[in-house]
Amino acid sequence: MSPPAAFALCADDFALSPAVTRGILEALAAGRLTATSAMTTQANWPEAARAFRGLAPRADLGLHFNLTLGGPLGKMTKFAPDGAFPAMNAIVPAAWRGALPRQEIRDELRRQLDAFEDAYGAPPDYVDGHQHVQVLPGIADDLIAELAHRGLAGKIWLRDSADRPKRIFARGKHWGKALTVAALARGFRAKAKAAAFKLNDGFSGFSDFDAKTDYAEDFATFLRAPGAKPLIMCHPGHVDEELARLDPVTASRETELAFLLSDRFLAILGAAGAKLERISAM
């Protein structure tokens, strides 16, 4: 009998709010995640970093580079003149036109990386981006250059938010979102590999964030057509007033968390012949 197929499972938005952090920590402690991505722009980040330290042997902790939720850690007079990040639908066309204020974004990237190291005492195990901003033209180049400048090439991994169309269609759901992100990420993988960064191979987890949807059924599709180092994203957590103020994705986080902590999650892994693993161990 062949061994179970390994995949990494990453909870995005660690430190977004105290309740989201608490939910992710519950899933980590239960051994139901192998990574979580931290938003160092949020006030909850230093406390979240301290809480994660005891869980470090069992999961990766990454930087969730943020340019679309809340505000920056420093002044961005062109990108965020009123102190609030712009929406993703404003960033994407500007990125493709080459119209982003890249020096401001580079400076903010450095601040977020510094905030990660200041609170956690070490560089991130990997880097991804809130709403996949890390793969956008210009931003991707500056991210790769900054991480290489810090001596992290070959030491940490980067999230490739794209997957092959054949795999995307094989999953049968949410292919519109997946194909859109794959198009935005065109060229990212080649640039990262050329700079000696490790990457996942295979990506899924796109969702409508509808709490009424049977998330277990969705999750079973995420396991289909995996790559050599598949990564699944998820968004578990509890809900509090701060989350409701900052983000429209609320009740579905509770649904995802309940599923991850359930026996049904383990049954789906067993039926698929899948097991949780860290990217670094694949």
UniProtKB/TrEMBL annotation:
It comes from the Bacteria. Its cofactor is Mg(2+). The keyword Magnesium applies. Keywords: Carbohydrate metabolism, Hydrolase, Magnesium, Metal-binding. The keyword Hydrolase applies. Pfam families: YdjC. This is ChbG/HpnK family deacetylase. It comes from Candidatus Rhodoblastus alkanivorans.
